[in-house]
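Exercise 7. Given the encoded structure of a 328-residue chain, write a plausible sequence.
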């Protein structure tokens, strides 16, 4: 699961929404079958055995192949996860990243620009007992600090950008270590009440640390003032044609800017770093890449566009975005 609490099934799968996992791939990779209505009105049942070439592509179809009208997911009985959240330095996280990834089913972290501080989260299956965060401590961490106070400091930073580095040093130390055990959706997802603009790229996992260090150097040497943390997650390789993890084990770096704050300079500089490492942008987030670029980072890109030509030759589902990322 991704970490945003409100998600729609067709939208999340069509854009490749993901969480973080050593073996757990994106939501799209959990699809066992789907039903799609194509441009000529045909209703097609797709799975690994029925229309497999469409199934391979439509699980992350970015709206280009048709309207998804039904999805069958792989499911399992409800289980418990123990979450361990812990502050950690940037240097330690990056030096120990491979071990942290290998030792945990789900590992992610946030780096606070202008600081050497990170907040890490390790989620692993647990036999229980269920021990959710206390009502008071949960309110303080998830609502007061992560949303209420965070809203205030971002508003201040937007109004007076020069205060952001000082605020970042304080806010990066506001969250304390905690451990709790709960059912998965309560562990994976969080309320996100502070609005932002986001860009995220999937890199080969082995390129993550170098790219992140380059991002930190770029921010430190620039006049940029970044009040939002940078999020880092992972996913195993999958077999979906245009999945950001298609054919390669991946790490994701997501950069954010508070709503109403100019983001173009930061995102442009970050995107330059990510694309130098073969980054694949999230289909549902901000990016400037086009069909020529995607053809260079997706080995099966031509397979997808050929299928689109067959299913929607008249571009019934065409729009400006699809023309940019897939070509005419």
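Solution.
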């Amino acid at each position: 699961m991704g970490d945003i609490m409100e998600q729609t099934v067709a939208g999340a799968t069509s854009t490749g929404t993901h969480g973080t996992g050593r073996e757990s791939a994106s939501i799209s990779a959990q699809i066992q079958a789907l039903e799609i209505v194509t441009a000529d009105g045909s209703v097609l049942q797709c799975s690994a055995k029925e229309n497999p070439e469409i199934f391979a592509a439509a699980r992350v179809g970015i709206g280009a192949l048709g309207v998804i009208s039904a999805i069958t997911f792989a499911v399992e009985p409800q289980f418990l996860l123990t979450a361990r959240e812990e502050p950690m330095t940037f240097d330690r996280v990056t030096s120990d990243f491979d071990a942290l990834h290998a030792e945990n089913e789900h590992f992610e972290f946030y780096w606070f620009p202008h600081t050497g501080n990170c907040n890490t989260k390790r989620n692993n299956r647990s036999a229980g007992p269920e021990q959710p965060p206390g009502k008071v401590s949960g309110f303080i961490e998830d609502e007061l600090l992560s949303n209420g106070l965070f809203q205030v400091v971002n508003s201040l930073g937007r109004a007076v950008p020069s205060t952001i580095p000082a605020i970042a040093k304080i806010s990066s130390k506001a969250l304390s270590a905690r451990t709790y055990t709960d059912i998965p959706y309560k562990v994976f997802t969080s309320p996100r009440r502070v609005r932002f603009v986001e860009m995220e790229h999937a890199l080969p996992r082995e390129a993550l640390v170098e790219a992140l260090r380059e991002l930190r150097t770029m921010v430190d040497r620039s006049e940029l003032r970044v009040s939002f943390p940078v999020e880092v997650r992972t996913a195993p390789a999958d077999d979906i044609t245009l999945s950001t993890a298609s054919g390669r084990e991946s790490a994701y770096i997501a950069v954010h800017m508070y709503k109403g704050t100019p983001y173009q300079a930061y995102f442009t500089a970050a995107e330059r770093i990510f694309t130098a490492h073969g980054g694949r942008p999230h289909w549902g987030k901000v990016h400037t890449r086009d069909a020529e670029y995607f053809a260079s980072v997706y080995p099966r890109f031509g397979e997808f566009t050929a299928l689109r030509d067959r299913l929607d030759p008249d571009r019934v589902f065409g729009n400006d975005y699809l023309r940019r990322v897939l070509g005419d």
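Remark. The chain has twelve helices and eleven strands. Students should compare their own answers with the one above.
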